[in-house]
Design goal:
The protein is of the alpha+beta class and 113 residues long. The protein has helices at 2-6, 17-33, 46-49, 100-112; strands at residues 54-61, 65-75, 80-91.
Length: 113
């Protein structure tokens, strides 16, 4: 969508062949999402009560977007259980001319908050 905006496409402008193909790939991926089950729940209170619980924070960026995720890692008898506690992603502004290093820093800010 950003590329269409950058190239000043109007709502009724026919897409070029390469953009049409990319759109068909995205559409096919959306249809596959219908077969995906995503469980949403708050992690057990155990994650906050266990003194050995570890928090792992990941942040990453590309020219198109930047993001962060926080996981809780709980030791059990012979394994570790992880829970996604928080995640956030942002799309890079079209008008900004950020370097990858600057975008990585923006991802780190999300992670720190």
């Amino acid at each position: 969508m950003q590329e269409l905006h950058l190239n000043n496409y109007q709502w009724d402008t026919p897409l070029l062949a390469n953009l049409t193909e990319r759109w068909r790939q995205i559409e096919a991926e959306f249809h596959q999402l219908g077969n995906t089950l995503i469980l949403c729940q708050i992690a057990d209170a155990q994650i906050f009560l266990n003194e050995k619980t570890e928090l792992h924070v990941f942040a990453d960026a590309s020219k198109q977007a930047y993001a962060a995720a926080v996981y809780g890692r709980i030791p059990e008898e012979d394994r570790f259980v992880t829970h996604l506690l928080f995640s956030k992603a942002k799309i890079t502004k079209l008008t900004a001319n950020y370097t990858i290093l600057q975008l990585e820093l923006l991802a780190a800010v999300i992670a720190a908050r």
